[in-house]
UniProtKB/TrEMBL annotation:
Role of this protein: Catalyzes the phosphorylation of the position 2 hydroxy group of 4-diphosphocytidyl-2C-methyl-D-erythritol.
GO molecular function, a single term: 4-(cytidine 5'-diphospho)-2-C-methyl-D-erythritol kinase activity
Record protein name field: 4-diphosphocytidyl-2-C-methyl-D-erythritol kinase
Keyword Nucleotide-binding recorded: yes
């Protein structure tokens, strides 16, 4: 029992429809989660005291105290399994921070998988998904990966089968957006309207089942996009520039401010990266493809 490393993906929501606020403060969702190969590596080792270290270009923006979602996940399991002692957690971070790509959730999911393997706990998949859901609405999907339909507050998942793989470009902003603030802004913008029951369109499901990138491009949709733009008006320009420079479609990722551009193929994505870099519409531009598997052990020393 020395160290376990787990690799875990970021997500983008291909469809995100948001219902009215629920009594518990969350919103009912119907969403398509899609994991992409922008990944964090989380390493967990037994130690004499708890610690958390984050490496990577955005490390300074990630807390290392008990508010880190990876620490929360490890301590949650330590409360349930008395045989577990303190741990050293190391997060090698490539997923954008506070970008609407569920980076903290991914680290929490990776930690659940790592601790389970490190201490040989044999936690069932169902129970692991239960721990994940209690840690955050996006955490279960990071365990599952691929492409999945999310309902409830995002924690109820059903896989979406389809042979397609997709090429993406992401425009990242250094300054994040707060997820609760974006949901609150969405409520404010829709205050004078009846909000329909959230639902993913049949056209979107058909596009995904057929692996049809052009049909998928037509149906990318995010109900939080207007709210993210209201809070960060420059995002409108970023999205428009991507479309002018050849993206098949552009959408704000989750609660933003990352903008996601769907491309026809890999060479289209490379061309778009160059154009967006030149246009200086974002602090960084990265390329990724999906779907990507969920949290997986990559080394067990
Ligand atoms: C925007 C998305 O990334 C889309 O997948 C997620 O809905 C956000 O999921 P998350 O960051 O895991 O969110 P949580 O940690 O569960 O909740 C943080 C806050 O976001 C808001 N929230 C989140 C999920 C949801 N279905 N409705 C909400 O209103 C609530 O204000 C909540 O207090
Ligand atoms: N392991 C972690 N990695 C990144 N941020 C974390 C982590 N743990 C806690 N945080 C805090 O959570 C905030 C949101 O970070 P995160 O990167 O998860 O946002 P996000 O991608 O917008 O989330 P989501 O898409 O799930 O709403 C950060 O500003 C940071 O303070």
């Amino acid at each position: 029992m020395q160290a376990v490393t787990v690799r875990v993906p970021a997500k983008v929501n291909l469809a995100l429809t948001v219902g009215p606020p629920r009594e518990d403060g969350f919103h009912g969702l119907a969403t398509i989660f899609h994991a992409v190969n922008l990944t964090d590596d989380v390493t967990v080792e037994p130690a004499s005291s708890w610690s958390c270290t984050v490496t990577g270009p955005d490390a300074a923006r990630v807390p290392t105290d008990d508010s880190n979602l990876a620490v929360k996940a490890a301590k949650r399991l330590a409360r349930s399994f008395p045989e577990i002692g303190p741990m050293r957690i190391t997060i090698d971070k490539s997923i954008p921070v506070a970008g609407g790509m569920a980076g903290g959730s991914a680290d929490a999911a990776a930690t659940l998988v790592a601790v389970d393997a490190l201490f040989d706990l044999g936690i069932s998949r169902k129970r692991l998904l239960g721990y994940a859901a209690r840690l955050g609405s996006d955490v279960p999907f990071a365990l599952v990966g691929g492409t999945a339909l999310g309902s409830g507050r995002g924690e109820e998942l059903a896989p979406v089968l389809g042979g397609g793989s997709y090429e993406w470009v992401f425009a990242l902003q250094r300054e994040g957006l707060s997820t609760p603030q974006v949901y609150a802004e969405c409520d404010r913008l829709r205050a004078d309207r009846a909000v329909p029951v959230p639902m993913v369109s049949e056209e979107m499901m058909t596009a995904l089942r057929g692996g049809d990138v052009h049909a998928l491009a037509e149906h990318l949709h995010n109900d939080l996009q207007d709210a993210a733009i209201a809070l960060r008006p420059t995002l409108r320009d970023t999205l428009e520039t991507g479309l002018e420079e050849g993206a098949l479609a552009a959408v704000v990722s989750g609660s933003g401010p990352t903008c996601a551009f769907l491309c026809e193929n890999r060479s289209g994505a490379l061309d778009l990266m160059v154009a967006l870099n030149a246009a200086k519409v974002a602090d960084d531009i990265v390329r990724a493809s999906g779907p990507h598997p969920g949290a997986k052990v990559t080394s067990h020393g």
